[in-house]
């Protein structure tokens, strides 16, 4: 159940091929790609710097992937998150979930992103024409993550 | 000795990425540590004031106020996360 933190870009086609390689039981692949936008809180963003907490990051991402596998019947979960300097239109995060059926794959993919946004130790700093600023956490992200806490865990 | 790690905006305002401290004998939990750091005044008192959104991890696991501390621990202080 791989998780990776890297400065390099990723290729979703290659990552999907690797994840489902040799498993003919996979019937569904759900994926999410996060992209750096050029506009945030009405300010033009020129560069986004991603910082993380090495050691804790990998542990937190692995815990989220494990949690997803406990909640749904999945074959694999892949999480790739980039760090360092990124520009608008750059890919920043990738989640791929493989399973037998689409329902579980869709749900698990959304769950992983919601938990990643509130639990994985990454921080964004934006450079705009007015200078640089740390991005503030959003209450809507907390609300998105909390939705999953009431959901029933998979039985058996 | 306890290793303190400051991340993101907190590293900027404290002007330090990490420091090693001798944990006073009467401090045995995260909340005790934060209270002690607040007595430094200035940015410490301001940023770690009760009600401020400060997250703490002990040895790479998310911690709460009552999480116990012991010599050799790595304690990280950081703002709410903003990845993804």
Biggest β-sheet of chain B: count, sense, barrel? 5 strands, mixed
CATH architecture of chain A: Alpha-Beta Complex
Which oligomeric form is depicted? heterodimer
Helix-strand string of chain A: EHEEEHEEEHEEH
Shape of chain B: globular
Mean pLDDT of chain A, rounded to whole units?
93
Number of helices of chain B: 3
3D shape of chain A: globular
What's the overall average pLDDT of chain B, rounded? 96
Give the full name of the CATH homologous superfamily of chain A: Molybdopterin biosynthesis MoaE subunit
How much of the sequence lies in strands of chain A comes to 35-45%
Derived from helix and strand composition plus strand pairing, the structural class of chain B reads alpha+beta
CATH class of chain B: Alpha Beta
Corresponding CATH superfamily of chain B: Beta-grasp domain
CATH classification class of chain A: Alpha Beta
Measure the end-to-end span of chain A.
21 Å
- The strand count of chain A comes to 9
- Unreliable runs of chain B, pLDDT <50, ≥5 residues? none
Explain what this protein looks like in three dimensions.
- The complex is a heterodimer of chains A (156) and B (84).
- Chain A is α+β, with helices and mostly antiparallel strands.
- Chain A has one domain: Alpha-Beta Complex (Aldehyde Oxidoreductase, domain 3), CATH 3.90.1170.40.
- Helices cover 33% and strands 36% of the residues of chain A.
- Chain A has 4 helices and 9 strands; from the N terminus they run βαβββαβββαββα.
- In chain A, strands 3, 4, 6, 8 and 9 form a 5-stranded antiparallel sheet that branches. Chain A has a 4-stranded mixed sheet with strand order 1-5-7-2, with helices on both faces.
- Chain A starts with a strand and ends in a 10-residue tail after the last helix.
- By secondary structure, chain B is α+β, with helices and mostly antiparallel strands.
- Chain B is built from 3 helices and 5 strands.
- Chain B has a 5-stranded mixed sheet.
- Chain B is globular and about 35 Å long.
- The mean pLDDT of chain B is 96.
- The chains are: A alpha+beta (156), B alpha+beta (84).
